[in-house]
């Protein structure tokens, strides 16, 4: 009888559903961003635009 | 360690001001991107890039860094903690990611802002070419900031395993702690 009266507080609760969904969405978006960076050849930032812009400006 | 009420309210005021200011500055940035995309006028295009650079450097970045810093102070100085509740963890991770992307993207914006300021030729294709990326960055950034804001307002329930352990330690202190 006494064995059934275990303190509930010591049992770690299950992860809430919103946390799982949110984590999944954030993870997918981070993965998507990484894939876009990889597909772009890591050529991100100002360098992505520098060469074409300079070529255009230098044209007569 | 929790802050005294007066200090906590002051820190919360600063944190809210910076966070909402960040959202407002990104919204203004987004307006400029759309204005530049829809305008056929060369002067408008150049002016938008220069304004985007100024807003980014003197409003968005300071607000972002201040928001991150005051957010850390708020979480560490209140009962919420930094890793006890899932909503705080998600807010922290998203804020750090948004700040990293912002700092990276601002290099591009500053580059175009400089070009727009210096060039006087009619060749504006390059300036137009960078707008699509800015629409994506600012639009997605604004969405992430609204999600963070929503998490901070609603504070959905959910303790992390660390938070659960800490809560149990507070409710059921160890025998040696209870004796003191």
Structure commentary:
- The complex is a heterodimer of chains A (60) and B (180).
- Chain A is mostly helical and 60 residues long.
- Chain A is 58% helix and 0% strand.
- Chain A has helices at residues 17-39, 47-58.
- The radius of gyration of chain A is 26 Å and the shape is rod-shaped.
- Residues 54-60 of chain A have low confidence and may be disordered.
- Chain B has 180 residues and is an all-alpha fold.
- Chain B has one domain (5-179).
- Helix content of chain B is 82%, strand content 0%.
- Chain B has helices at 5-38, 42-76, 86-118, 125-129, 131-154, 161-171, 175-179.
Summarize the structure.
The complex is a heterodimer of chains A (60) and B (180). Chain A is built from two helices and no strands. Chain A has 60 residues and is mainly alpha-helical.
Helix and strand topology:
The complex is a heterodimer of chains A (60) and B (180).
Chain A: H1 17-39, H2 47-58
Chain B: H1 5-38, H2 42-76, H3 86-118, H4 125-129, H5 131-154, H6 161-171, H7 175-179
Helix pairs in contact in B: 1-2, 1-5, 2-3, 3-5
Short descriptors:
heterodimer; A: 60 residues; mainly alpha; 0% strand; B: 180 residues
Number of strands of chain B: 0
Distance between the termini of chain B: 19 Å
Helix residue percentage of chain A: 55-70%
The tally of helices of chain B reads: 7
Structural class of chain B: mainly alpha
Biggest β-sheet strands, sense, barrel of chain A: none
Low-confidence stretches of chain A: 54-60
Largest sheet of chain B: none
Would you count the extended β strands of chain A for me?
0
- Per DSSP, the total helix count of chain A is 2
Q: Which chains share the greatest interface? A: A-B, 24 and 31 residues
Helix content of chain B: over 70%
For this structure, the quaternary state is heterodimer
Number of domains of chain B: 1
Please report the distance between the alpha carbons of the first and last residues of chain A. Answer: 93 Å
List low-pLDDT spans of chain B: none
Task: Round the Cα radius of gyration of chain B to an integer and report it.
Answer: 21 Å
Report the β-strand fraction of chain A as a percent range.
under 5%
Shape of chain B: elongated
């Amino acid at each position: 009888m006494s064995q059934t009266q275990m303190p509930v507080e010591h049992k770690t609760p299950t992860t809430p559903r919103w946390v799982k969904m949110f984590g999944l969405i954030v993870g997918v978006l981070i993965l998507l961003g990484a894939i876009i960076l990889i597909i772009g050849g890591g050529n991100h930032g100002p360098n992505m635009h520098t060469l074409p812009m300079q070529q255009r400006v230098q044209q007569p | 360690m929790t802050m005294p009420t007066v200090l906590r309210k002051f820190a919360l005021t600063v944190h809210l001001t910076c966070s909402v200011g960040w959202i407002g500055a990104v919204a203004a940035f987004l307006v400029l991107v759309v204005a530049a995309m829809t305008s056929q006028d060369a002067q408008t295009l150049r002016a938008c890039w220069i304004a985007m650079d100024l807003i980014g450097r003197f409003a968005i970045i300071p607000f972002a860094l201040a928001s991150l810093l005051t957010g850390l102070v708020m979480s560490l100085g209140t009962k919420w903690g930094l890793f006890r509740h899932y909503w705080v963890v998600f807010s922290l991770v998203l804020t750090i990611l948004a700040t990293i992307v912002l700092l990276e993207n601002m290099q591009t914006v500053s580059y175009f802002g400089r070009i727009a300021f210096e060039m006087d030729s009619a060749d504006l294709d390059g300036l137009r070419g960078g707008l699509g990326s800015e629409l994506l960055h600012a639009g997605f950034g604004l969405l992430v900031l609204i999600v963070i804001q929503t998490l901070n307002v609603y504070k959905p329930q959910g303790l992390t395993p660390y938070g659960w352990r800490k809560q149990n330690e507070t409710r059921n202190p160890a025998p040696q702690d209870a004796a003191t």
